[in-house]
TrEMBL record:
Belongs to the eukaryotic mitochondrial porin (TC 1.B.8.1) family. InterPro entries: Porin_dom_sf, Porin_Euk, Porin_Euk/Tom40. Gene3D superfamilies: Porin. It is found in: Membrane. GO terms for cellular component: mitochondrial outer membrane; pore complex. It comes from the Eukaryota. It comes from Trapa incisa. The keyword Transport applies. This is Mitochondrial outer membrane protein porin of 34 kDa. Its main location: membrane. Keywords: Ion transport, Membrane, Porin, Transmembrane, Transmembrane beta strand, Transport. GO terms for molecular function: porin activity; voltage-gated monoatomic anion channel activity.
């Protein structure tokens, strides 16, 4: 566990990663290469049905400044500049997209032993302002996340969350969607030597009175191969296997079956990440 409570996005992250990270129903290919000067170039292609999307991302690092430049098939140019530790515990992020003139955003993050703060503002005449804050420690954390639209004068988001952690267990409770949904998640390390863990997430919607339950597990077959599986109360069963066939190069195959469908429709995704 890290020092301090972290940021609001860290609340429930362990369970989310276990249940949703790396699952892919589309065909995805990613390859990353590094130049002798340390410049990283990542090319990604995704096929969704008959639609093919691609982008190329270039990352440059110089001292504590990281610049990411991405170009996609729709001729959008996205740039993110991150300044790490201009002061102890502080990180600043500036991002914008061309030709979208309203996409500019400035974000500042501050991490302390008992506080984690993140605030962002859109670089427009009437920006959306977001603030999230967490207080506590690496064992107990309580936080909130709000967004305010200065143009309409309304709060567009207000969430709150609580997290408890120890060496092998992480539990969280969050109130989302302006108080309309309650989410509880649980992550437990069964065997750290084999990276075996189980997790669960329960979401209740007050407006529809619908509950969504998802449970999952992961296990390292060997130091280079990990398998994961999950199932929810809608009858959808998913599984994946990920193999690191060379350092920082991963091959991931995942699939999903709707056990309640009459024809047992299945979706299979393939993700290949190459990072020489």
């Amino acid at each position: 566990m890290g020092k301090g409570p972290g940021l609001y996005t860290d609340i429930g992250k362990k369970a989310r990663d276990l249940l949703y990270k790396d699952y892919q129903s589309d065909q995805k290919f990613t390859i990353t290469t590094y130049s002798p000067t340390g410049v990283a170039i990542t090319s990604t292609g995704i096929k969704k049905g008959q639609l093919f999307l691609a982008d190329v991302n270039t990352q440059l690092k110089k001292k504590n400044i990281t610049t990411d430049i991405k170009v996609d098939t729709n001729s959008n140019l996205s740039t993110t500049i991150t300044l790490d530790e201009p002061a102890p515990g502080l990180k600043t992020i500036f991002s914008f997209k061309v030709p979208d003139q309203r996409s500019g955003k400035f974000e500042a993050q501050y991490l302390h032993e008992h506080v984690g703060i993140s605030s962002s503002i859109g670089l427009t005449a009437n920006p959306v302002v977001n603030f999230s804050g967490v207080i506590g420690s690496n064992s107990l954390a309580l936080g909130t996340d709000v967004s305010f639209d200065t143009k309409s004068g309304n709060f567009t988001k207000y969430n709150a969350g609580f997290s408890f952690s120890n060496a092998d267990l992480v539990a969280s409770l969050t109130l989302n969607d302006k108080g309309d949904s309650l989410n509880a998640s649980y992550y437990h390390i069964v065997n750290p030597l084999t990276n075996s863990a189980v997790g669960a997430e329960v979401t209740h919607s007050f407006s529809t009175n619908v509950n969504t339950i998802t449970v999952g597990t992961q296990h390292a077959v060997d130091p280079l191969t990990t398998v994961k599986a999950r199932v929810n109360n809608s009858g959808k069963v998913s599984a994946l296997i990920q193999h690191e066939w060379r350092p920082k190069s991963f091959l991931t195959v995942s699939g999903e079956v709707d056990s309640k469908a009459i024809d047992k429709t299945a979706k299979v995704g393939l993700s290949l990440a190459l990072k020489p």
